[in-house]
Structure formats: C-alpha cells, structure tokens
Amino acid sequence: MKNYDAIVIGAGHNGLTNAAYLAKSGLKVLVLEKNDYIGGAAVSRELHDGWVYSNCSYVCSLLRPEIYRDLNLQKHGLQVIAYGGSVTFMEDGNIFGGYSDHDLQRREIGRFSKKDADAYVRFGRDVSKQCRFIKPLLLRTPPDPTSFRPKDLNELVWLFKRLYGLGEQTIYETIRFYTMSAAEYLEEYFESDIVKAALSGSGIIGTALGPYSPGTAYVLLHHYMGEVDGSIGSWGFARGGMGSVSKALAGALQEYDGEILTEAEVTQIQVKNGKATGVVLANGDEYHAKNVVSNLDARRTYQDLFNPEDLNEKLLKQVDNYKFNGSSGKLNIALDGLPDFPAMGKDNPLIYADMHFIDSLERIERAYDDWKNGRWSQDPYCDTLIPTMTDPTMAPPGKHYMSVFVQYAPPKLATGEWTDKDREGFGKTVIDQIGQYSPNFKDLIVHAEIRTPQDIENEVGLTEGNIFQGELTMDQMFFNRPFPGYAQFRGPVKGFYMCGSSTHPGGGVMAAPGANAAREMLYDLKRKNIVPEAENDD
Amino acid sequence: MLRQDHYKTSVYKTPFHERTSELNILNEWSRWKDYTVPTNYFRTDLEYFAVRNTTGVIDYTPMVKQKITGPDAAEFVNRFFTRDMNKIGIGRVGYVVWCDEEGQVIDDGTVFHIRENEYWLLCVERQLDNLENSAIGFDVKIEEITDDIACLGIQGPTSCSILKAIGFEGIEFLKPFDIKHYDFRGREIIISRTGFSGDLGYEACMANDVALDFWDALFEKGEIYGIKPFGLDALDLVRIEAGLLVPGQDFMVAEDAIRPGSTRSPFELGLSWLVDLSKPVFNGREALIEEKRKGSRYTFVKLNIKGNKPAHGSYLYNQANKKIGTVTSAMFSPSAKANIAYASLHDPWNKDKDKIIAEIYYQKDLEWNRVMEEATIVTKPFFDPERRRTTPAELY
Predict the structure, then answer these.
(1) A88 to each of A183, A206, A306, A384, A440, how far by Cα in Å?
(2) A197: buried, middle or exposed (CB in 10 Å: 19+, 13-18, 0-12)?
(3) What is the ipTM of this complex?
(4) H/E/C letters for each residue in A95-164?
(5) Interstrand relation of A86-89 and A354-356 (parallel, antiparallel or unpaired)
(6) Is there a contact between A60 and A73 (Cβ–Cβ < 8 Å)?
C-alpha cells in the first residue's frame, strides 16, 4: 500500500493532463490505467504489421494551445501538423471541395450557387463571432447560477459582461444559435443543398442527433472552433497518431515525477466519513490518497466505482438520466497504395482532406433514422481521412492508412447486442460506400479494424461508445455538465473530482477538462494556480 | 563581360525556374539579389509543415557563392574568418562570420571545404572586394561562382530517404556538416548535411545544366515521402525556430551601416563560439580583444514571450519602464506553440535584476491594440529534434 497526494483513475488524455498539473504543482501523483497502454481514446496502435492507427480519435483540432505550450509538449515529442480542407463526393459524379483559401472556397461554392458564395462570407463572420464568445470559456470553470459565493458571482458577472459585449444583435443570435439545428442555421445562409450538407457534417459528428435536431448548431461550432483557432498549426494531425498526444502528456507528467501504472483497473473508490480515501484495484491492491480524480465518464465513475451507499439518491438518479446515446463507429484500414478517386481528378490537393460520401441533408437525416431504428446507417456519413498523405510515420512509404469515422451506429442493435456478423456487415456498408467513389479501393485493403460503439466501450471504457463521454446537448453542457450542482469538477464526497470529457467543456481531444479540474483542485488545496488561462483573442 | 543591355533582364530566373514557376500556384515571388524566387508556393503553413514533417525543397541558387582555391587557401581562410578554420577539415562545412577592422560583423555564411586547397564561401552579400583585400600576399584565386552553380535545400525528416531512393549511396552516414561528392548522370553533385531548418536536411550544389534533371529525380522519388517545395516565408519560420540569424534583419551588415553604433560584433550576436582570439591574425582581432576587456554594448537573446501576439519590431523595457532593447525577428512558433523572438539588449538592462517586457502592437478588425508582455530568455533553439544530429540519419 502506498500513499499519494492524488490518484487519477484512467490515463486518457484528460487524466494525464490533470495529473501533469497536479504533479507540476508539487503533489505526489499516481495515474492508474486498466489497459496495458495509456491514452484512452487518444492512442496510436500498430494493429497490422507496419501500420500505425489512430484507432479512436483521429484529428487534433481542439487541443488547447495554451496547455501544449505550458506543458512543453513539443519537447515531449508532440508535433501537430496542419492538413487542408474537405471534400464531399456527390452522387452525380461531381465533388464539392472545402478549401482553406478564402477565395478558392468562394469560387467553389459559386459553382453551385453564386448567392451562397457571397453568403459564405457572412456565415464565416457569424460563426467566428460565436467562437470568439465561447473560446475563452473552455479554460474556465462554469459558475453555479444558483450560488451566491463571490467566486460564482464574479464569474457570472464576467460572463454577462462578455455576452453584452457581443452587441445587441449578436446576443439575440447567440441565444437562438444554441437552440437551433445545424440545418436550420445553415438554411438561414445557404440555398444549395450540397453546401448545407457539407457544412452540416460537423454538427452531427459524435452525436445521436440528425442535422434537423435542435442543438446541432452548437455541435457544429464545437468542431468549427479548432479550425479557426488562429495560430498556424493549432489543428491537424498529431504526428505519429493520436497516441503522440498522450505520450507527450505522460512525458510532461513524468518530468514532474508523476507515476503511471498500467494494467491497474480500479474497481472501487474508497470513501470514509464523506471523504475519498483511496482506490481498490481489480487485483485487490489498494492505493491511498486524500484526492481521487476520475477520468472515466460520469456513469462509469458513479455506477461502477462508488459504493451506492456513499452517494445520495438524487445524484444516482442524475447519473441514470445522463445521456450517452452512442452513435459512432470507426474503421481503420491499411491500404497497399493510394486509392483513386476519379471524381477528384489527378493531383487534387483534396486527397489530403476530410472526405465525405453523402451529399444532401436529407440523406444525412435518413442515416440518422437508421440509428433511431436500431440499425447502423445503410448510407452513412463517413468522415474519412488518409493521414499518411500527411504523416510519413504511420505506414511504409507508398502505403496508406485510412481512418473512417462513421455516423451513425447504435450502441445496441434492434436485434440485440452486436455480433461478429453485424460488425462485418457494418464494415461492409462503409467499405461499399467508399468503393462507389474509388474503383480500386477494395483491392488495396490489406487489413481493416472495424469498431462498433460496443467495441469502443469494451476497450476504451466510453459508455455506449459515446466519443464525448456523454452527449453535447444544452441540457448537459456548461453548468449542467455532467449534471447541475456538479459542474465544477467536484464530486459528492470531499476530495473526489471528475476530470474527463463528462465535465466542462466536453469532448474532443482538448485537454481542457483535465486542466480545469486541476485548477479547481489546487484551489481547494490552497495551492497557487498554475493552470494557464485562455489566450485573449482580442 | 555582361552585355550592355543587361538591364533588359532586370531579374534572373534560376535554373530551377521552369519547375518552381509551375508549382508556384500563388504566383508570389521575391527578389533575391539578381534573381526571383518563390515567396510562397501554395500555403505558407503547409510548406512550413512539409519541412517539419516530411521534406521541403527550397531553391537557394541566389545565395552568393565564392570559390577560393590555391596553395595558400587554408592559411587564407584562417586569416579571413574569426574562427579556427583548421578545424574545418576536407569534406566539412563550417558556419562562419567575418569582421571589419573594428570587429563588427560584415556578414555570416557557410564555408565548404570542398577538397584540398579549395573552399567555397556561401553567404548573403558579395565579398570579392573584402576577400581580395585580405588576400594580399597569399597564393589564392578568388572567383564568384554564384551564377554557375545551382543550389537546393532539401530539408526535413524524410530528406535522407529521398536522396537514398535517388541512388546517393551512403547518404545516411553523412554526419552533420559533412560533404560528399556524388556522380549524378555523369556530373558532379555536392551534397552536404547542412541547412537552414534546424532539422535533418541536406544541401545540394550542382552545375546549372543538371539542375532540372536533379529536381525531377527529387520530386519523382520524393512523392511517396511527402516532398513539397517551400518558399521564403516558410523559410523564415523554420530558421527563427532553429535559432539562425539573417544578416540585414537580425544585425546590420557592417559595410552597409551609415550610423555609428548600428553594427554588432560577434560577441554581441551570441556568436563568441565562432571567435578564436588565440589565432595570431584575423580581421578585427584587436578590436575584439579590446571589447572582451571592456565589455560589449549589446547582448543577443532568444525570447519566449507571453501571449500569442508576435512581437514584430517591439521595443523592450525593464520593470522601471526604461528601454533595454529591440526585437529583430518574431513569430508565433507552430511547433512550440510559443511566441518567440530574437532581440538585441543594451544598457541599462541588468542581466540579474531586470524583467524584459515587450511592447507589442497588433490589429484586430483594423483597430490597433497594444499589450505589454513579459518575456524570458531561452538558451536553446526553439526547435531542436534529436534526429537533427542522429547518424546514420533516420530513414523511412
């Protein structure tokens, strides 16, 4: 038995970030990980000889540059490489390109609608306004709106000042924005279906909502934020795969003498007299600490690790109500060469970009209907990338790795649990869709890893395979994340905290929840805050 | 002799122009001495990342090149440059500066010890006058070969793999600053493990008539290794991260300086490692000995500045609000996610007591804003991966 100042359960990227800050502050920290590798859903794994997959999360668009800089992640081997654009393949053989060059993009939209091409300028401005409002919140603790403590009141005042600083018209727009669907929002700007379909994609990634579901406008913004992060290279691929993010964070943690133990599954959080005292592992080992932090999602944490007697009924009910609605699957494919996409033409730089094979809002909404009916989408929305076009470290020269993120796949099928045959069928659906646009694609496949929401849950521990550790809907965001009364990273017992994506500001490889939780812990421990603030955009 | 109507060709095209102009889809060009070369080809950040992640290729043919040959070549270079040139053996490259009589830096560059009794000096400003003046009494021949030799920088982690794939045997065994002579289609090509990126990388010098063939081989074999051309804007980003100076930006070229006090000595540029005062004679030696005794006027530093607004041209102050220096180069580093700069500090800066505060101006929606951000001095380059030094070089 060993004593620590803090124990972090789960070596996901947020657990590692949290631990790194606690260790940097001088605390004795231990991170416990059930798998024999670290990173949670930010991992690089060689599952086929010579090919490294980012087999869960696959792009690095939201990682807070402030944390990257502050923890010196470059020194610990992280390099985020920018890549460019997006492309949507259309049923009629055309393509719609998403270019980072402003004028190229305007011209491309103009191929479909001259009016939309101009509206794009207005759209870009409005979304940037929303990003400007929300970005500083990512590295702040949500205030409790019912509290009269000075800390909360000050934060509320700050928030209102910021809101009123937007100007009258934008305040109205902001409030509308948070309740709208991505489709409705886009329809206020664009008439062309392909433009709307292409832009709506980021509104549904990771969420069990369709483009017409209220709340998806925000999800669109959540993903858009990375792209407009200002400084060069704040978004892109982590060189060597997403495991490089975790590896660099672990490097930072170890530099501050933090410890990591793998194959150490925590089965219980010990509580005595309303205080966390330590954890028990599956093998019976005990580790003691006055502070216990969970990187696991809210349900796993409270239902699996706590003794129900240590929790009040209301919280248990809140945990039960917390929505996951797993909706995503993933294919990782090793390719013997670069597939042809004849619709793109030769030497099109969009081969470096996010590729999609669904070209109308209606088709995307239909894909969502399948999820509601307990089936995987027969005509899915696939966010497809060939990271090896950019990253030379993930496959042998001339060979390629393709990452296919698939929306939608239910955590449980109408027919029951996922079977091997279902998994195969799911994979085939996706491969067939891509194959429609690339005649030699199927012949190039040398290995494919097919991951259903159930696989993701079993391996990574994300309940229902929800990539955000719980839906990113307004009822579960900001001071409601994970649930009202617990949005400031503190749990129901003294010395217990949450630091995963179930907490503010939610999912994506941002490292913000982990850092935010560390800041609150240091506050409780009356230690100097060392967690960086968000850079001012103004 | 150049024709009388040379003015009709106001800028020269490099031997690579046919290819670089095809790839320069932005059609952005910069004047570099007699030549024009791409400023940006397709997207500055992607060009930057090619250098950092795969391989970037830059046409640096306009770099001024002088050839020094003759039985006294070794003695002559040792007299001209401030460092001990005996340490730069045959087949090695050395970074050099040289000074005027007052110990002020005229220029910096690289000296290639090509073969016995033959050195090449690659630098920014033409030096025939200076070299000839210093050569009195030495049996050496000095020629400018700028227009006769085409040069490419091939920089980045996959660069060695590409050169190897073309057929340059043993390229991976070159140590940093090594030179190797290769035969390429019957012509000599000189490849050195040098560059301006702070990463694994090579430079290739060749006769003009073989330039296009070499370019084509490079891009054909390089495709699967992510080869991309990069322009001067991306070059500036990688060289600042790598800790490399540019004459005319980070210091005033002594010969061009009109105003007293505007030039710098090697000590004032953080280059004391390039000065060997134990050598009996070199230009500026007495002045540098005197400076060593009396102390320098300026201190060159690398800064890590808070915030994310680059400190272009910023004044630096101490906590008493006294001006203590000026920024010479600045950028937000995509690799370190840090706001970095070079600066020249002066009195009353106190090394042990003073804070350094940068006055930064920047625009948002056309409004000018000002922030005062604290800076810390860093000693290592901002980008310095292990693979830069590893031999044999990393292969993909």
Answers:
(1) 17, 19, 46, 10, 19
(2) buried
(3) 0.94
(4) EEEECCCHHHHHHHHHCCCHHHHHHHHHHHHHHHHHHHHHHHHHHCCCCCCCCCCHHHHHHHHHHHHHHH
(5) parallel
(6) no
Count contacts between A and B (CB, < 8 Å). Answer: 74
Residues of B in contact with A81 (CB under 8 A): 49, 52-53
- Condensed to tens digits (0 to 9), the pLDDT of residues A425-475 reads 999 999 999 999 999 999 999 999 999 999 999 999 999 999 999 999 989
Which pLDDT tens digit goes with each residue over A54-99?
Answer: 999 999 888 999 999 999 999 999 999 988 789 999 999 999 999 8
Q: Cβ–Cβ of A391/B42 closer than 8 Å?
A: no
Cis peptide before A408 (omega within 30 of 0): yes
Residues B311, B316, B318, B321: is their CA dihedral positive or negative? negative
Q: Which residue has the tokens 């500090």?
A: B345
What six digits make up the tokens of A6? 């803090």
Residue B345, strand partner residues? B299, B325
Q: How far apart are CA B258 and CA A255, in angstroms?
A: 50
From CA A5, how far away is CA A271, in angstroms rounded?
Answer: 15
| Spatial separation of the C-alpha atoms in residues A374 and A371, rounded to whole Å | 5
Question: Which of A100, A232, A390 has the CB atom closest to B334's CB atom?
Answer: A232
Amino acid at A412: K
Beta-carbon separation of B225 and A79 below 8 A: no
Shortest distance between the Cα of B154 and any Cα of chain A, in A, equals 16
Identity of the residue in B54, B307, B334 whose CB atom sits nearest the CB atom of A535? B307
pLDDT of residue A232: 47
The CA-based dihedral angle spanning residues A9, A10, A14, A18, taken in that order and rounded to the nearest 10 degrees: 30
Select from A74, A249, A391, A510 the residue whose CB has the most chain B CBs within 10 Å, as the one to mutate to test that interface: A74
Contacts of A74 in chain B (CB under 8 A): 335-337, 383
Report how far residue A444's alpha carbon sits from residue A398's, in angstroms, rounded to the nearest whole number: 12
Tokens 């060695």: give the residue.
B160
Q: Are B249 and B329 in contact (CB under 8 A)?
A: yes
Q: Residue for token digits 């270079």?
A: B77
**Measured between beta carbons, which residues in chain B are less than 8 angstroms from residue A535?**
307-308
Q: What is the DSSP annotation of B110-148?
A: EEEEEETTEEEEEESS--HHHHHHHTTTS--EEEE-GGG
Q: Which residue of A has its CA nearest to B306?
A: A535
> Is A307 exposed, middle or buried (CB count within 10 Å of its CB: 0-12, 13-18, 19+)?
exposed
8 A C-beta contact, residue B373 and residue B358 = yes
Nearest-CA neighbor of A203 among A229, A189, A224? A224
CB A519 within 8 A of CB A29: no
Selection from B127, B133, B117 nearest residue B64 by Cα: B127
Q: Which of B45, B53, B225 sits opposite A232 (nearest CB)?
A: B45
pLDDT in tens, A405-421: 999 999 999 999 999 99
